[in-house]
Amino acid sequence: MFSDYSTAELVSIFAMQGFAGLILFSVFVLMALGLAIIFGQMGVINMAHGEFMILGAYVTYLISNLFSEYMPALFGIYFFIAMIAAFFTAGALGAFVEWAMIRHLYKRPLDTLLATWGLSLIMQQLYRTVFGAREVGVSLPDWLMGSIPMTDTIDIPINGLFVMGLTIVISVSVYLLMFKSRWGGQVRAVVQNRPMAGAVGINTEKSDRMTFALGCAIAGVAGSAFTMIGSTGPTAGQLYIVDTFLVVVFGGAQSLLGTIASAFTISQAQSTMEFFLSGSMAKVLTLLVVVGILMLRPQGLFALKIRH
Amino acid sequence: MSKTTLRAFMPRQDLISFVVLAVVIFIVMPLCTDIFRLNLIGKYLTYAFVAVGLVLCWGYGGILSLGQGVFFGLGGYCMAMFLKLEASTPEATKIQSTPGIPDFMDWNQLTELPWFWEPFHSLPFTIIAVLVVPTIFAYIIGVAMFKRRVGGVYFAIITQAIASILTILIIGQQGYTGGVNGITDLRTLLGWDIRTDSAKYVLYFVNGILLFACLLFAQFVRKSKLGRILLAMREREDRVRFSGYDVSNFKTFVFCMGAAFSAIGGAMFTLQVGFMSPSFVGIVPSIELVIFCAVGGRMSIIGAVYGTLLINWAKTTFSESFPELWLFAMGALFIGVVMAFPSGLAGLYQTHAKPWVDKALFKLLSQRESTNSNSPVTAD
């Protein structure tokens, strides 16, 4: 299938598809980071994670409308405010959900799956009632539009670059928060040995709530970033949830580095194959390979060595 | 079978609930509803096959599969392929550019029947395929996962991914599978028109009898030693393994059984509803099937049937009149079942209604006894 293209064409195909893959990678990482915290650290299966992401997207949509209506002069920077708002809205809802629902189910991880699926149905219908069934998009400020021409055949879109930069910033902050801060140490202590963590004076309930809220808040930011490259509809969250779970499981649930590595592998494989096969076949092949590898290596690529 | 083994297989309590269910399905429903509603109920009952399989897999074995829609769909598609071939005779499809192949293939510029469609000209092959294809598929998944001790949450996520893969595949390969519309416009089964009212009646009863066959098989598994091993495995898997049992074999068996049940349900669905589409294969229907089982009670095979009937009936009535509210209600139901009554309808009956029913029965019986014992006194 390569014989139809010249070498130069192939290089630019791979470069363009590689870049498209990098954007997909950013979306995966943003969604999967939140999930990796919730699922990997707490063992809770949050099927409503996609809906938290959509919440962030809708918050961004509202704020962009607000700015273009009342403060057109500041429209260039609305995105940063929207992201902060998305972070706190999704985080607050996450904390509430943890208090109302999840904390009763820590001993039954499979049941968290069903309960959060119910939550996701409710949230979807809520979005549909409030925002309508149609997809909505936000208008980007001028400085985010357009693209940088690298060569004659390769163009790099600026919004893609911005999303990638954002992903790096968020990944690094999550890493610092989880592995370098006092709070992250407490979270990891609670996850590894709950009674012992409680015995040394860590408030385990509070730690759980903050962890869950943080995971949801990151999903909110992901949704906010997502509006820059695609439109948002009530059911958009569901499209990503299986992929995201696979990313997290494939990378090894408890390893944040693994999550990033597997997001990279899956997104690159998918976007490179997408050019040569139809989109659906590329996805089928990628998922099949991931499932196949998971059958051989159930703990994922980067499993922590723990005795069970 | 001697009387004691029969009693062990079917205690009186279970016998009563089986009889009640039989009366409901075979007598009450056909008498009380018109053929349109009866056909709907028949459709709901095809989901009950899946729910019964899930009771054994999930309630007893502790394996939550979020991919039961895959097996339902495979069974349904096998049956649909046979019916479609029968409906696309060269005479019926003579306006196509290639007569004799299903219409959607013609629309997708296919000029001959794909090789894997060929054997579906024969009904015996189709019936075997309905049972065997999903079971083998389940066996491969089961062996690959359980031998590697993939369980619990990871198993659920992987089965979900498989459901997603199959849906994308079916939708993507439009020429071979009918794409997102599925296989539609099915007419006859060996020349017998399945769209007439009388055929719908017959199919409803066939469906009911097959469901009872599955229920009896499930009851057999539940009451046999296998059922106890499954329960033990769910509670303490490593202990069962240390006692010398090969846990993965038991898990694979019960998973395959659930798959076979689902496939029968899928095939009956195609026959009664007259089409099959990828919307019954993916993640959303698969999770809905789990909730049917959870509402009925994850430990009760009879409860699973009632749960399925109740939710689907509610879904139809609600979404006819309040389509907006239905998703809210469904979501609340998911949360409610998990949080408030994890053992479902069967559990509610056990804790609340059963003491009352038992008391009423006891009263009835003791009254009869007391009138019996009183009668000589009154004679005096």
From TrEMBL, chain A:
<keyword id="KW-0029">Amino-acid transport</keyword>
<dbReference type="GO" id="GO:0005886">
    <property type="term" value="C:plasma membrane"/>
</dbReference>
<keyword id="KW-1003">Cell membrane</keyword>
<feature type="transmembrane region" description="Helical">
    <location>
        <begin position="212"/>
        <end position="233"/>
    </location>
</feature>
<comment type="similarity">
    <text>Belongs to the binding-protein-dependent transport system permease family. LivHM subfamily.</text>
</comment>
<keyword id="KW-1133">Transmembrane helix</keyword>
<dbReference type="GO" id="GO:0022857">
    <property type="term" value="F:transmembrane transporter activity"/>
</dbReference>
<protein>
    <submittedName>
        <fullName>Urea ABC transporter, permease protein UrtB</fullName>
    </submittedName>
</protein>
<dbReference type="InterPro" id="IPR017779">
    <property type="entry name" value="ABC_UrtB_bac"/>
</dbReference>
<feature type="transmembrane region" description="Helical">
    <location>
        <begin position="156"/>
        <end position="178"/>
    </location>
</feature>
<keyword id="KW-0812">Transmembrane</keyword>
<feature type="transmembrane region" description="Helical">
    <location>
        <begin position="77"/>
        <end position="97"/>
    </location>
</feature>
<dbReference type="InterPro" id="IPR001851">
    <property type="entry name" value="ABC_transp_permease"/>
</dbReference>
<feature type="transmembrane region" description="Helical">
    <location>
        <begin position="275"/>
        <end position="296"/>
    </location>
</feature>
<dbReference type="InterPro" id="IPR052157">
    <property type="entry name" value="BCAA_transport_permease"/>
</dbReference>
<dbReference type="Pfam" id="PF02653">
    <property type="entry name" value="BPD_transp_2"/>
</dbReference>
<feature type="transmembrane region" description="Helical">
    <location>
        <begin position="20"/>
        <end position="40"/>
    </location>
</feature>
<dbReference type="GO" id="GO:0006865">
    <property type="term" value="P:amino acid transport"/>
</dbReference>
<keyword id="KW-0472">Membrane</keyword>
<feature type="transmembrane region" description="Helical">
    <location>
        <begin position="52"/>
        <end position="71"/>
    </location>
</feature>
<keyword id="KW-0813">Transport</keyword>
<feature type="transmembrane region" description="Helical">
    <location>
        <begin position="239"/>
        <end position="263"/>
    </location>
</feature>
From TrEMBL, chain B:
<dbReference type="InterPro" id="IPR043428">
    <property type="entry name" value="LivM-like"/>
</dbReference>
<feature type="transmembrane region" description="Helical">
    <location>
        <begin position="15"/>
        <end position="32"/>
    </location>
</feature>
<dbReference type="Pfam" id="PF02653">
    <property type="entry name" value="BPD_transp_2"/>
</dbReference>
<feature type="transmembrane region" description="Helical">
    <location>
        <begin position="242"/>
        <end position="269"/>
    </location>
</feature>
<dbReference type="GO" id="GO:0015658">
    <property type="term" value="F:branched-chain amino acid transmembrane transporter activity"/>
</dbReference>
<feature type="transmembrane region" description="Helical">
    <location>
        <begin position="153"/>
        <end position="172"/>
    </location>
</feature>
<keyword id="KW-0472">Membrane</keyword>
<keyword id="KW-1133">Transmembrane helix</keyword>
<feature type="transmembrane region" description="Helical">
    <location>
        <begin position="325"/>
        <end position="349"/>
    </location>
</feature>
<protein>
    <submittedName>
        <fullName>Urea ABC transporter, permease protein UrtC</fullName>
    </submittedName>
</protein>
<feature type="transmembrane region" description="Helical">
    <location>
        <begin position="201"/>
        <end position="221"/>
    </location>
</feature>
<keyword id="KW-0812">Transmembrane</keyword>
<feature type="transmembrane region" description="Helical">
    <location>
        <begin position="289"/>
        <end position="313"/>
    </location>
</feature>
<feature type="transmembrane region" description="Helical">
    <location>
        <begin position="123"/>
        <end position="146"/>
    </location>
</feature>
<keyword id="KW-1003">Cell membrane</keyword>
<dbReference type="InterPro" id="IPR001851">
    <property type="entry name" value="ABC_transp_permease"/>
</dbReference>
<dbReference type="InterPro" id="IPR017778">
    <property type="entry name" value="ABC_transptr_urea_perm_UrtC"/>
</dbReference>
<feature type="transmembrane region" description="Helical">
    <location>
        <begin position="44"/>
        <end position="63"/>
    </location>
</feature>
<dbReference type="GO" id="GO:0005886">
    <property type="term" value="C:plasma membrane"/>
</dbReference>
